[in-house]
Amino acid sequence: MENAPLVVHPLQDAGRLMTILNEPVGVARSLRDVEDVLQRAGLNPDEIAMDDPDLIEWRGGGPDVWA
């Protein structure tokens, strides 16, 4: 079970699948895409630590892994 509401999953293709509460919300190809999802959810990405495990669970590598 996921602890964080936003989970960034690895994909075999380019990008990373994002889910919020187990529902797909898009594919991120960069950290900016994750920030856009957070902003659409009503959060200010500038005020969020992207490595905050209570908000974002990074699977297959952290916020610096995109290849």
Task: Briefly summarize what is shown.
With 67 residues, the chain is an alpha+beta fold. It has one helix at 31-40; strands at residues 6-10, 16-20, 23-28, 56-58. A four-stranded mixed sheet has the order 3-2-1-4, with helices on one face.
How would you explain this protein's 3D organization?
This protein has 67 residues and is an alpha+beta fold. It contains one helix and four strands, in the order βββαβ. The protein has one helix spanning 31-40; strands at residues 6-10, 16-20, 23-28, 56-58. The protein has a four-stranded mixed β-sheet, covered by helices on one side. 13% of the residues are buried. The model has no long low-confidence stretch (mean pLDDT 91).
Identify the notable features of this structure and list them briefly.
four-stranded mixed sheet, alpha+beta, 67 residues
List the helices and strands and how they pair.
Layout: E1 6-10, E2 16-20, E3 23-28, H1 31-40, E4 56-58
Parallel strand pairs: 1-4
Antiparallel strand pairs: 1-2, 2-3
Radius of gyration: 11 Å
The total count of helices amounts to 1
Q: Order of strands across the biggest sheet? A: 3-2-1-4
Uncertain spans, ≥5 residues at pLDDT below 50?
A: none
Topology as H/E string?
Answer: EEEHE
- Name the quaternary structure: single chain
Helix content: 10-25%
Average of the residue pLDDT scores: 91
Shape descriptor reads globular
Distance between the termini: 26 Å
- Main sheet makeup: 4 strands, mixed
Count of DSSP E strands?
A: 4
Which class of secondary structure composition applies to the elements?
alpha+beta
Percent strand:
25-35%
